Amino acid sequence: LQLVDSGGGLVQPGGSLRLSCVASGASFDNYAIGWFRQAPGKEREGLSCISLTGRKTYSTDAVKGRFTISRDNAKRTVYLQMNDLKPEGTGVYLCAADSVTDVQSMCLLDPTYEYDAWGKGTQVTVDS
Fold first, then answer.
1. What is the pLDDT of residue 102?
2. Do 92 and 38 contact (CB within 8 A), yes or no?
3. For the chain, which residues score pLDDT lower than 70?
4. Angle at the Cα of 6 (from 27 to 13), degrees rounded to 5?
């Protein structure tokens, strides 16, 4: 499985962006997907994840209520809608895929986990 993340850019505080994570290669329906952020000088942190069916999602307290994760398996794409962006949201945003066999399982959001694939990242800069 290969992942390509995109949609980053420069946005003012309070603005919005929608990131996309497009998969190719293996069957996308078998993977839960997580979004992570790598801020300058900081450790990678998890933001949101979505189960392979899309029925279960999880977001950290830092982004809950502002970020929404969704997926379209027909398009092999996971989206991260980001609203009310803050300057501390600046960083490289990456998606990661976790192969899952249990359709009822929850997604995993752990930056130290060995995911099956990572995107190369897309830069988001929040600045006035």
1. 86
2. yes
3. none
4. 135
Q: What is the pLDDT of residue 103?
A: 82
Give the model's pLDDT for residue 26.
78
Rounded Cα distance, 57 and 86, in Å: 22
Q: How far apart are CA 128 and CA 118, in angstroms?
A: 30
CB 38 within 8 A of CB 121: yes
83, 90, 93, 110, 119 from 128: Cα distances, Å? 15, 12, 20, 31, 28
Closest Cα to residue 31, out of 65, 73, 74, 61?
A: 73
CA 15, CA 45: separation in Å to the nearest integer? 21
